[in-house]
Amino acid sequence: MMDQYQKMAGQHLQEMRGQEERTNKKLLALENVIGYTCSASFLLMILAASFAVANITWRIVLIAAGCLIFLIGLVSCLKLEHDAGYYKCPKCGAVYTPTMKAIILAPHIGRSRRMKCPYCGKRAYHKKVLSK
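Above: the chain's sequence. Below: its structure in token form.
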């Protein structure tokens, strides 16, 4: 009886881990869509303000709107980056969720961020992992 219970519990944990990975993949894909869309609209508004509009008031409005769209998109992408998945330390192997401040201030290459591990204290490029 106990053996069967442990087997079922293990299956449920595997299912939950798989569901968490699928959810995190969807969130990271959404982050890409938001980031590219906001960046493209920002560039288009800057180009429109530079070349298409002669009135200075409309130029200012277009540039301000482009900056606002980009800022909103940036904040949304950083929030999704923080909420989806975890980071793994290459030195000690600890898997953790960093603070929002660490996400914002850390230099990054793709999904890897140079952060200080809260467990071992070493600085390195920590890779994004989808589940613990």
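The chain has a mean pLDDT of 93.
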